[in-house]
Amino acid sequence: MELRDDLRKEIEGKLRTLSESIKNAFKTDNYEYFAMENIHKTYIDFGKELKSLNCFSDLPINLRIKFPTILFKTKRQAPSQDKLFSDPPEKNIPYEQAIKEMLEDININLELIEFTLNESKNPSSSEYKNKLIEEVFEQDKRVKLRRGIRCALKIIFTLIVLFVSSSLLFVKTDVKFLFRKSEVGHAFSMLFDLNDFSFNISDEDKSFCSIYWNEKLIYKNGRPLEVNIFKARHYYGYNLITVKMADKAKDFYFYKENDWDYNKFKFKISDGHVAFWLDGELQIGKKGKHL
After folding, report:
1. How far apart are CA 109 and CA 47, in angstroms?
2. Which residues fall within 8 angstroms of residue 212, CB to CB, at 6 or more apart?
3. Does position 94 have pLDDT exceeding 90, yes or no?
4. Other C-beta atoms within 10 Å of 137: how many?
5. Which residues pair with 242 in a beta bridge?
6. What pLDDT score was predicted for residue 8?
7. Model confidence at 183: pLDDT above 60
8. Measured in Å, how far apart are the chain's first and last C-alpha atoms?
9. Which helix (DSSP H) or strand (DSSP E) does residue 45 occupy?
């Protein structure tokens, strides 16, 4: 390969500097974040400079080699040479494994560049060059595969976040009642209890008030009983809500078309007076039996 002497010396100097930095990292087993980041940046800049030269433009130098990302940048020092006994440095095993793989990939590309630079001295060694080129292509395949996996994971994570957030919006707000008669509402009703209960009961009446849904106790001592609400919601056809106050009871009937149907229940009890709304409509009750 014909190059000006000054350009050849500059390329050889950068090759030597990068190669020695990588060998030193392996020799000392020291993969300090900022030093490794500098090696990666120097290699990428060097590769771009070479690709801008006509004699290297067709050489498949891998510039897609990625620097491993970590949450915390640390300056892990090599073991001290001055102390006979020193604490072993802390290691980030996944990070260091990824760094070693990155350095090995860079090394292969440097070998390919060095071999191409001195190819005229070894014209019969094209088989070795082809082997290096194949290894570089394999690196590129790995990079594309990892990029595809990362992209797929991002899409899956985004879909999960969207599903969870939309589910919370659907379940916790009145939006669900817009889809009550649709397949969307039916599907969510199979997974969640979409019934909406509002208990507005005066403090004086809380201790005397009990509410039953299809003879299952759903409210007592000032608090709803979620387990029984979940069980009672599956009844369809005619349903019965009974509000018991001391020795009196009041019954309210309503009709559920399917077991996955859901409603908005509102109770207001004050001074012994019972009012019950179903889906915003005030219901007329009748005297119920004593439960």
Report:
1. 9
2. 218, 240, 241, 242, 243, 244, 291
3. no
4. 12
5. 212, 251
6. 83
7. yes
8. 100
9. helix 33-51
